[in-house]
Amino acid sequence: MTLIGRARARGIETLSLDATGTRNALSAALVAGLADALTDCAKDPGVRAIVLTHTGNTFCAGADLRDPPHPDALVQLLRQIVELHKPVVARVTGHVRAGGLGLLAACDIAAASTEATFAFTEVRIGVAPAVISMPVLPRTDPRAVARYYLTGERLDAVEAARIGLLTLAGDDVDEALSPILDGLRRSSPQGLAETKALLTARVLETLDRDAADLTALSARLFDSAQAREGMTAFLERRDPTWVL
Predict the structure, then answer these.
(1) pLDDT for the residue numbered 1
(2) Is 105 left (phi over 0), alpha (psi -120 to 50) or beta?
(3) Are strands 155-156 and 117-119 parallel, antiparallel or unpaired?
(4) Closest Cα to residue 203, out of 145, 131, 117, 148?
């Protein structure tokens, strides 16, 4: 089964997360498929930039609790997006949860329609946004992200743009992205690559410094009793035992 849709228009390769049955959750297979597609784009001189988008009403629901990727695989995918010498632009018209926000933060530019919603829901199932913190924290407002990390509250696209999760939000995401994609088409491959390297240096430093510790933390938390209760409650559509 193909989990990543692909299309190209005037040098812009669009990669679509296409696992609507699981709300584009990050399964081992989806992570591997996206990594392979990004590798192809990196090698192809006909690709000037990449748009990462989705089918269905959810960009990404976070980790697939029935088939989660190993934390190392998610780290490598986030690093791949950040290190890629071509810009990656997120286009969101639906919901983004938990690990999906790591994908969003790893992208160089992120745009969403005002229909989109966002939430760091990890605390509600007994884990923490460990691995995704590496691209999220360097790019977001510290006080705001502390609130949303700790509460799991939902935020809208306007608020997501205000705190740095998004570059911009608008009623028509394609209209909003049109001048951005035009600008990328007018930019030289060398200019884009070297400029992206300047912009991503801080995120890469965080990945180099923290990847091992945060991968270990993620694995430990997902193997804990509270996480098992939280994930079971989520799958059974009930409150976990700690809800007051």
Answers:
(1) 66
(2) alpha
(3) antiparallel
(4) 131
Catalytic (active site) residue 13: no
pTM above 0.85, yes or no: yes
Distance CA 85, CA 82 (A): 8
Output helix, strand, coil percentages for the chain, rounded to the nearest 5.
Answer: 50, 20, 30
**36 phi and psi angles, rounded to 5 deg:** -65, -40
In terms of Cβ atoms closer than 10 Å to its own Cβ (0-12, 13-18, 19+), residue 212 is exposed
96 contacts 106 by C-beta, under 8 angstroms: no
Q: Which amino acid is at 187?
A: S
- Among 122, 159, 175, 229, which one carries the catalytic annotation? 122
CB 38 within 8 A of CB 4: no
- Average of pLDDT values for 197-225? 96
Can you give the length of the chain in residues?
Answer: 244
Q: Diameter of the chain by CA atoms?
A: 56
How far is Cα 5 from Cα 54, in angstroms, rounded to an integer?
8
Report which DSSP code applies to 243.
-
Residues in a beta bridge with 232: none
Alpha helices in 129-237 (DSSP H): 133-136, 142-151, 157-163, 173-186, 189-222, 225-235
In order of their start, the domains of the chain are 1-172+189-244 (3.90.226.10)
pLDDT at position 66, please? Answer: 85
